[in-house]
Design brief:
With 248 residues, the chain is of the alpha/beta class. It has helices at 11-22, 44-47, 65-86, 105-119, 135-141, 160-171, 190-199, 235-240; strands at residues 2-6, 26-30, 53-56, 90-96, 124-129, 148-151, 154-155, 177-178, 188-189, 208-211.
Amino acid sequence: MRIAVAGGTGLTGRLVVAVLEAGGHAAVPLSRAGGVDLVTGAGLDAALAGADAIVDVSNVTTMSRAVAVDFFDRAGRHLAGAAARAGVRHLVTLSIVGVDRVKNPYYAGKLRQEAIVREGAVPWTILRATQFHEFAGQLLAGVPGPVALVPSGGVQPVAVREVAAGLAGLVSSTPRGMAPELAGPRRETLPDMARRLMAAGGARKRPVLPVYFPGGMSGGGLLPTADGPRGTQTFGDWLAGQRFARRA
């Protein structure tokens, strides 16, 4: 199969491309560096010519609701439209477990993306995965100051490579609509993940203060709610495999 990967040069996209190629597929990364701009639609029609399917792992780094909704609305509409024109038979989109339960500015954009996929003309599959093992580090990077205020909620983090493998398996099969949620093998708490990351040298050491976050994050909203595939790499396994530069 010829499979386009939107966001194919990012953290998840690179792994999706590698898994697809290892499986004998022709993977086509879609990125600005390759002349494709999802936000404007530039280059999409040419890039999707002859594509059988698409995996969408496109992303924007923001905590602004307006920016997130604008990006996923424009990128989603352009991708869905170009996919329909190209006769693409399957669109697989990565989303997040709890996106419909946790009040988060970024999640508002992901919900808009999901709606566009559902409303589009191309047969689709949406895979909601739990947060990656990198999530604790991302949270800490966004919290300045001498004390790290970390949401008190639980998560069930999953390895990016296992999500990439899940997406590759879905795109090479028939469209499923909402796929079963993919999660990691073990529940963790965000404050504990933050402390362990600091101890391993993956973030600046400072006291961690668990904070109740309204809107679902501290109330279990990021945890899977039904049976589904589970990864095998725990957060501890992932942490042990990292090579962090030691930080003070």
